[in-house]
Amino acid sequence: SELRDGFPQTAEKLFEFDAIILDDVEAEFFSRDQLALFNDFVSRRGGSLLMLGGQESFRQGGFDRSPLRALLPVYLHGDDAATPVGRLRLSLTRDGWLQPWVRLRPTEEDEQARLRDMPEFRTLNPLSGVKPGATVLANVSDGRGQVFPALVAQQFGRGKTAALAVGDFWRWALRRE
Q: What's the predicted TM-score (pTM) here?
């Protein structure tokens, strides 16, 4: 019900929230003024922004041509992004192991078992690179052993932004009882 009138049009309304999660929404969904509000929401208010890798996210959603690209911890420009081959297996980086919101089990053994038992991914949004100061928390590796950033986060002003480049993260819920 909070968004029954659409995405907030003013900082006052947007600043009532703690975080924004974008998934499968194109940049064109937002007005230029709303896109500008994202910057203030994160940098001034100290809010968090997470972009999930759905089909209409990142470059495919036109965010490489929007003001939002400056907030993301990854580069979206160019066609120089490598393409993975085959299924993708997620693993945590050293920094990912240190974050309780990334590492979901109390012991390393339990977390390794969780990751090992999860289905493999098939879709990764192409990224041109990781921005200086950003931290890669998880990678995916493909059938050839190539490693690609999957979860990247950074401090941005008073807030934080993160990007989950995996496009079919929903697969992890398929084995739920």
A: 0.89
